[in-house]
Amino acid sequence: MVAEAKKREIKEAYKRKKIMKERFKQEENIASAMVIWINEILPNWEVMHSTRRVRELWWQGLPPSVRGKVWSLAVGNELNITPELYEIFLSRAKERWKSFSETSSENDMEGVSLADREASLELIKLDISRTFPSLYIFQKGGPYHDVLHSILGAYTCYRPDVGYVQGMSFIAAVLILNLEEADAFIAFANLLNKPCQLAFFRVDHNMMLKYFATFEVFFEENLSKLFLHFKSYSLTPDIYLIDWIFTLYSKSLPLDLACRVWDVFCRDGEEFLFRTGLGILRLYEDILLQMDFIHIAQFLTKLPEDITSEKLFSCIAAIQMQNSTKKWTQVFASVMKDIKEGDKNNSPALKS
Q1: 45: burial class by Cβ within 10 Å (0-12, 13-18, 19+)?
Q2: Please, which residues have CB within 8 angstroms of residue 129's CB and are 6 or more apart in sequence?
Q3: Least confident of 15-19, 53-57, 232-236, 316-320
């Protein structure tokens, strides 16, 4: 027994030493990458950001110290939002909240629909309390509670046509953790203005179905066995993809891993969101093949907490986003064309 205990102790010590060594190596890599990003890439962004060397470095994950800056540059500011414009819409939001708290009279809330008021007040308030609850920093009294409330409120005034939709709070929270308040709002508004995000947050069913149909083309191409298994249960992508896309994986994956997904999403665009989804399915393929409809849906709704960056990104790297020489954008365009012509039978997701 003593000998066995000694063996276990040695084994545990070796394991701890290995983990520490890997962590030290990782920290060294982050430190050296940070120097390259700060001294070479960021000062020459326009010239360097699309080079092979930078793209390869980008894939490995951005150093936390430059993450916000790189995200801002990669997302861009097509909407030309300024910090001053953010302050204007924040002031409008505060006026609306004040007016609503003082009276619930329709006359005193002219031009603001009941649905809009509920979205900008009750739903935001409720969702903030459910945003990364284990961190405590976004809950009432936490250091980022008011900032998150401000950004979400300002956005409902900036885009009343979109309003507030559940899931937005997670996206805004991740940005707040990496950017100053005004910059976070600018990145938030521009991110949500991207075609994929706009389709989902406006609940444009027609466009959402096109994304699901395109996803299924690559699902069948990469994971044919699992694809047929899902199909046998009539398990369609909307059951698990909607939550993943709505929060850009920030609710479904550990925060550090979600940030790494965001890194490459900012580099590659919407295609990477669906490639990540396929990477998750590949990672758990053997487990999912043993499950029925209910257990698959439950599993994909709440992924294991021990999911690691190395394993997931290894699976994502193995996913080929090319179908019969067609890339994601080409397949998506073909699906659009098929639907316009009324040929809905070619896309499995459209039958649901």
Answers
A1: middle
A2: 138, 139, 140
A3: 15-19
What angle do the packed helices 270-283 and 328-340 form, to 10 degrees? 100
pLDDT at 1: 75
Residues β-bridged to residue 326: 323
Beta-bridge partner residues of 327: 322
Q: Mean pLDDT, to the nearest integer, of 128-153?
A: 93
Q: What is the DSSP string of 181-221?
A: HHHHHHHHHHHHTSHHHHHHHTT-HHHHHHHHHHHHHHHHH
Cβ–Cβ < 8 Å for 32, 65: no
DSSP letter string over 226-288? HHHHHHHTT--THHHHHHHHHTTTTTTS-HHHHHHHHHHHHHH-HHHHHHHHHHHHHHTHHHH
Confidence of residue 226 (pLDDT cuts 50, 70, 90): very high
Residue 311: both structure tokens together: 């394993």
Q: Which amino acid is at 343?
A: D
How many whole angstroms separate alpha carbon 307 and alpha carbon 316? 13
Does residue 138 or residue 24 have the better pLDDT?
138
255-268 helix and 309-318 helix, angle to the nearest 10 degrees: 30
Task: List the Cα angle 351/276/155 in 5-degree steps.
Answer: 85
What is the SS3 string spanning 37-92? HHHHHHHHHHHHCCCHHHHHHHHCCCCHHHHHHHHHHHHCCCCCCCHHHHHHHHHH
Cβ(164)–Cβ(119) below 8 Å: yes
Give the separation between CA 221 and CA 205, rounded to whole angstroms. 24
Cα separation, 75 vs 188, in Å, equals: 9
pTM listed for this prediction: 0.86
Among the listed ranges 273-282, 285-294, 315-324, which one has the minimum average pLDDT value? 315-324
312 with 280: CB under 8 angstroms?
yes
